[in-house]
């Protein structure tokens, strides 16, 4: 984006709405994660500055909401994978403990002797 009008429009958008978008994100995920959500929200706005609606705040909050939803889904996938790995690890025998070998002498073989 190199058009001075678009740059000015985005700057005005950012200055006017950053505090509200950030507060919305903080109320959902806390300060640290809110920084990332807010930054990504304005990255989307930067890329779509030509598509800005007349009233941009609801649009920005919708973007933030969608990004939050994506972050929740990613967290849920990570948590599910971690649970799956813990379960698989619990079933894996300890390499320091010798494995029990099945006996070659079965009850049937004993009977034949």
Primary descriptors:
113 residues, mainly alpha, Rna Polymerase Sigma Factor, Chain: A, 4 helices, 75% helix, rod-shaped, RNA polymerase sigma-70 region 2 domain-containing protein, RNA_pol_sigma70_r2, DNA-binding, sigma factor, transcription
Give a structural overview.
The structure is a single chain. The chain is mainly α and 113 residues long. The chain has one domain (4-89): Rna Polymerase Sigma Factor, Chain: A. Helices cover 75% and strands 0% of the residues. The protein is built from four helices and no strands. It has helices at residues 4-29, 31-47, 56-91, 107-112. The radius of gyration is 28 Å and the shape is rod-shaped. It starts with a helix and ends with a helix.
List the helices and strands and how they pair.
Layout: H1 4-29, H2 31-47, H3 56-91, H4 107-112
Helix pairs in contact: 1-2, 1-3, 2-3
Structural class: mainly alpha
How many domains, in number, for the residues?
1
Number of strands: 0
Overall helicity? over 70%
Give the amount of beta strand, in percent.
under 5%
What separation lies between the terminal Cα atoms? 89 Å
Q: How many alpha or pi helices?
A: 4
Which outline best applies? Answer: rod-shaped
CATH 4th-level superfamily: RNA polymerase sigma factor, region 2, helix turn helix motif
Q: Could you say what the CATH architecture is? A: Orthogonal Bundle
Give a quick account of the main beta sheet: strands, pairing sense, barrel closure: none
Low-confidence stretches: none
What is the top-level CATH class?
A: Mainly Alpha
CATH topology-level fold name: Rna Polymerase Sigma Factor, Chain: A
Q: Would you list the SSEs in sequence order as H and E?
A: HHHH
